[in-house]
Amino acid sequence: MNGPPPIEVQGLRKVFRQTTTGQPVVAIDRLDLTIAPREVVAIVGQTGCGKSTFFDLMIGLDAPTEGSIRIGDKRPHEDFDFFRGKIATVFQQDRLLPWRSALDNARLPLELIGLAKDVQEERALTWLTRLGLGKFTKAYPHELSGGMRQRVAIARAFVVQPDILLADEAFGHLDEVTAAELRGTFLKLAREFGSTAILITHQLEEAIGVGDRIVVFGASARLLADIQVSRWPKAEHAILREAIQSTLQNNQPDPRLARR
Question: Disulfide: which of 4, 74, 136, 139 matches 163 by Cβ 3.0-4.6 Å?
Answer without folding.
Answer: 4
